[in-house]
Amino acid sequence: MKKFVSILGVLLILGCEPFVTEFPDTSDAVPYEATSKSNVSYTGGNIKVVTWNIRFGIARFPFFGDSCGDDVILDDDTIEQNMAAIADSLNAMDADIVLLQEVDVSSKRTGYMDQVQYLLDHTNLNYGCYASMWKADFIPSDGIGRINAGNAILSKYELTEAERIQLRLRTDQDGLTQYFYLRRNIIKAKIPELSQDGKDLFAINIHATAFATDDTKQQHIDKYVETLAEIHDVGALFVTGGDLNSVPPGSVTDFCESDMCDGEDYHTDEAEKYHKEGSYFENFEAEPDILLPLYNAYNSAIDSADANLPVHFTHGPSTSYEINDIKYDRKLDYLFTNGGWVDGISQTHQDAWELSDHLPVSAVLFAGDN
Amino acid sequence: MMKRIISFLILTGFLFSETRNWDAHSAYLLPQKRWEMGLFQPFRYGYSENLEYSVYPLWFFVLPNFSIKKPQNDLAGFTTATQYKLVYPTPFLNMIAKSGTMGIIPPEFQMPPMLGLSSTWLMSKNMGGLDLTLNGGIDVGIAFGELDTRSTVDLPLVYHRLGVYYNKWGIHSGADVQKNMTEKIGILADVDLRLLPGLKGNYSLEHKLLISWHKSENFRIMTGYKFVMGEYPYGSDMRLLPYIPMAEAWVPIIELQWGKSRK
């Protein structure tokens, strides 16, 4: 009997990993290093930062979850080609710090490619950290299967104190859906080599909720602002950004009709849902101005006066081009700092539109010329 | 002369085919006219002294399946038998290839007509109070059409059983040990290996331990665990089953089995 209990105990330990990973409020982010590092050291000077939601390397694929498509799994060869193109794009931008969202590290939908490791091994970036927002043995819906996707920070320089901060879950879902759904997070890391005048430099990356119809987005932005304030209040420096899934103040807030797919119906009394999830940005009263605290407290790479200009749009659903000839029609991706950006060279890279349904935004933190 | 020898050996094998209750995994057949079934075990029927067939009746309508077991000549003191299985998984797989909840396979994949064939050699012997069964066999998966490798179901128990259709063939072997601790209580432990040479995720090792309580010849309850480890497309993995996802907890197997001998 004792032997049986011992054997069962060992098997319980070995074979009872969580089926769906639920994260604590804070935890360590997963560290990464390039297999072969580029020889680079910081000798002072400005620091280039990029944020990019790379849509797990599927480019403009008609994925069921975020477009009018029905498909789930892209073939491995095309994923590899797309990731190679993303790596080339990152190399061309030559950023010191890259904030990535929607990165897969072990997902059936992308052939179990570890995209963080891939990018570190195919770019001039040397270090990374990763925070999963969706980790499950199997998602029994739409054939998604095994999934591990999240946010990453990549850097030429070593990252320390990398931390994952859990954001509040949606409350507009039933328990079963919530259990199998995304668990959004903020990931932050310190980059000791890039300290400026004794001030630590932090990179903070967020991918806020996209489809919530309750106040989850407000909770996410509030937590984001709180996290930035904690760093700012101790006198440290940060660069931050990500896919905030929020439009700039003064923007159009209703994209339901332009995002509508065949067979869908919105803005009618007969419609099952009046607004399309993820396409409407007035789910609660404060939502249109949800980013004002960030614009008021910190410096945006793209000034608020220019944020709603078409040249700075960063997103359009991947099938919008085929349906409505729209490549991108709203800004959802941002960079902020409590330092200063070099004037005139912040950029929204709309030439990369074929590589994702989001566009990269780059800016240069002023740290003195080389 | 040779014909007589062969006929004698075949007849001897038939005459000495052993039958037993509650021994689905072994080389022993069910006694003639006895049926057995369980919550997780197929319906088995001792059609004759030389033929037992089995089918998963509830699954049959979406996953047609059939199996027969036939005695063979004793070998080195072991009672032997061969078991042949046939399964047609396509209707069920296409049911779960859908969008929305319980879409297990992505909806863009339609599974072609497929046939699974399995042949197993079983050898059983009582050794010092322990009933030992060894088995080994070959599996063949025939797909009558294109089968996309992205349509696999990467879950324990499932991946390697369906893997035979992607890999076209596989081999399996295993060993069972069973012992009656008392008149009413028994214990069964087994290990089964599946190999799919050349497939990404090419093996699984399954082990279970069950304790059974025989209320009567017609009913018994079993409880225990199943442990699975193997190589999958995403790497190595292991899992203790049954596992309840939302509770994030293992729960013991509860298997109820019924049997009856027709007069």
Characterise this structure.
The complex is a heterodimer of chains A (370) and B (263). Chain A is of the alpha+beta class and 370 residues long. Helix content of chain A is 21%, strand content 24%. Chain A contains eight helices and 14 strands. The model of chain A has no long low-confidence stretch (mean pLDDT 95). Chain B contains three helices and 15 strands. The radius of gyration of chain B is 20 Å and the shape is globular. Mean pLDDT of chain B is 92; it is low at 4-16. Chain B has 263 residues and is mainly β. In chain B, strand 6 (114-127) and strand 7 form a beta hairpin. The chains are: A alpha+beta (370), B mainly beta (263). At the A-B interface, helix 1 and helix 4 of A face strand 11, strand 12 and strand 14 of B.
**Rg from alpha-carbon coordinates of chain A:** 21 Å
Poorly predicted sequence stretches spanning 5 or more consecutive residues of chain B: 4-16
Which structural category fits the helices and strands of chain B? mainly beta
How helical, in percent, are the residues of chain B?
Answer: 10-25%
Q: The CATH topology of chain B is what? A: Outer membrane phospholipase (ompla), Chain C
Q: Could you state the oligomeric state of the chains shown?
A: heterodimer
Tell me roughly what share of residues is in helical segments of chain A. 10-25%
Describe the biggest sheet of chain B? 12 strands, antiparallel, barrel
Helix-strand topology string of chain A = HEEEHEHEEEHEEHEHHEHEEE
Strand order of the largest sheet of chain B: 1-2-3-4-5-6-7-8-9-10-11-15
On the 0 to 100 scale, the average pLDDT of chain A is 95
The best one-word shape of chain A is globular
Give the end-to-end Cα distance of chain A, rounded to a whole number of Å: 72 Å
Number of helices of chain A: 8
Provide the β-strand percentage band of chain A. Answer: 15-25%
Task: Kindly estimate the percentage of residues of chain B that lie in beta strands according to DSSP.
Answer: over 45%
**Measured distance between first and last alpha carbons of chain B:** 40 Å
Written as H for each helix and E for each strand, in order along the chain, the element string of chain B is HEEEEEHEEHEEEEEEEE
Mean pLDDT across the residues of chain B is 92
Number of strands of chain B: 15
Largest interface: A-B, 34 and 35 residues
